[in-house]
Amino acid sequence: MSSIRPATLQDVPAILRMIHELARYEKEPDAVRNTPEMLEQALFGVNPRVFATMAEDSAGAVQGFALWFLNYSTWEGVHGIYLEDLYVSPAARGEGHGKALLQHLAAIAVEKGYARVEWSVLDWNEPSINFYRSLGARPMDGWSTFRLTGVALDRFGQATSAPAAAHG
């Protein structure tokens, strides 16, 4: 049985540990640059825009987390939830923690009148894809994810004369 609760400051080390575990699973073990201080500021600083939800087993041990933020649908005219990361410890998979985390986010979306909960999944991650399909989620046919990062982001971002600080 899974118990779901908002993350607390004391969860930061566990969340960061699971972020590293997720990076290893996704074959990017050296990609994590996040630090406890960065994660603490993002989740618990002034006006946080990122949220984390924890899954615990019946003994109160943390078994997983969901890290998410609000997005906005210009077509629907309301917010949605973007799930950045969903992770359940390998030994606890199949016990309902992932489903409970996603149900919690869906309940927030319904309660607040948000249009959707959405996320990305690696195309080779068949266990997760099958799990998401079993919940009624469907891939967005015809859509691809694009990302500006690193040198391309720096180069493109410096090519403007508009002040970026005014936009948060």
Summed up:
One of its GO terms (cellular component) is ribosome. 33% of the residues lie in helices and 21% in strands.
List descriptors.
single chain, 168 residues, alpha+beta, Aminopeptidase, five-stranded mixed β-sheet, 5 helices, 33% helix, transferase, ribosomal protein, GNAT_dom, acyltransferase, ribonucleoprotein
Task: Describe the SSE topology.
Blueprint lengths: L2 E4 L5 H14 L10 H9 L6 E6 L5 E12 L4 E11 L8 H16 L4 E3 L6 H9 L15 H8 L11
Parallel strand pairs: 4-5
Antiparallel strand pairs: 1-2, 2-3, 3-4
Describe the structure.
Strand 4 (78-88), helix 3 (97-112) and strand 5 form a beta-alpha-beta unit. It is built from 5 helices and 5 strands; from the N terminus they run βααβββαβαα. The model has no long low-confidence stretch (mean pLDDT 94). The chain has helices at 12-25, 36-44, 97-112, 126-134, 150-157; strands at residues 3-6, 51-56, 62-73, 78-88, 117-119. The protein is globular and about 55 Å long. It has a 5-stranded mixed beta sheet.
CATH topology name, in short, is Aminopeptidase
Identify the overall geometry.
globular
| Distance between the first and last residues' Cα | 40 Å
Number of continuous helical runs: 5
CATH uppermost class: Alpha Beta
Low-pLDDT runs: none
Secondary-structure class: alpha+beta
Strand proportion, as a percent range, falls in 15-25%
| SSE series | EHHEEEHEHH
CATH superfamily: Gcn5-related N-acetyltransferase (GNAT)
Mean pLDDT: 94
- Helix percentage range: 25-40%
GO cellular component, one term: ribosome
GO molecular function, one term: N-acetyltransferase activity
Protein name: Ribosomal protein S18 acetylase RimI-like enzyme
Family: Belongs to the acetyltransferase family.
